[in-house]
Amino acid sequence: MMREAEDLVARLRALGSERNRSGMARFGINVEHALGVSVTEIRRLARAAGRDHRLASALWKTGIHEARILASMVEDPAAVTPAQMDRWARAFDSWDVCDQVCMNLFDKTPYAWDKAVEWSAREAEFVKRAGFSLMASLASHDRESPDARFGAFLEAIEREAADDRNFVRKAVNWALRGIGKRNASLNGRAVAVAVRLKARPERAARWIGSDALRELQSEAVRARLAKRG
Question: If phi over 0 gives left and psi between -120 and 50 gives alpha, with beta otherwise, what is residue 124?
Fold first, then answer.
């Protein structure tokens, strides 16, 4: 491991605490390889380190929970390859690492749209979650893509909505809500999907549809979309 990565891991160890690890566990985070460092502290270290592909690779290879989140913050999106995305996704073992990598890094690569659809059909729990986490991240962060591009995401949401695994169904729900809050047109399409899901026999699909409808048809969301025009 390169010297800078060793120094950062040492700083992470110094910042960790058993109290934080216990708190993480209560939120369903896998703490087997965690030190108990807050995301706020990890971001502070990332800002000081800057973007560095070699550093990100070294941090990821440690297998340490917080070091992998830090890797997603210091990695250069322009240096990321589809093979690296697949390799990192296969290594996800906790929902927070999955989501942080998708939000901090993967959604900034040119491969994000294709990987979101591809991973959404995978069987592995956290790879599948990554697909829907990417959809939610793109819905929130990609302000330039046309509405038509989200059609494949909505199709994937309907296709996979019967998956009752907790970390999958929550990500499917997140993606549907994120798309529906993007603008009025997509809100209408997302609401239509949610209505169909609510009427389906599968428990997961019904929960996703019902929960999404509560937010997408709320006064707060409608008012926000109306302001956007």
Answer: beta
Express each pLDDT in 155-170 by its tens digit.
999 999 999 999 999 9
Candidates 97, 109, 183, 103; CA nearest to 135 is: 103
C-alpha span between 47 and 161 (Å, rounded): 37
* pLDDT tens column, 9-59: 999 999 999 999 999 999 999 999 999 999 999 999 999 999 999 999 999
pLDDT at 53: 97
Q: Is 43 exposed, middle or buried (0-12, 13-18, 19+ CB in 10 A)?
A: middle
For each of the domains in the chain, give its residue range(s) and CATH number, in order of start: 1-79 (no CATH), 82-229 (1.25.40)
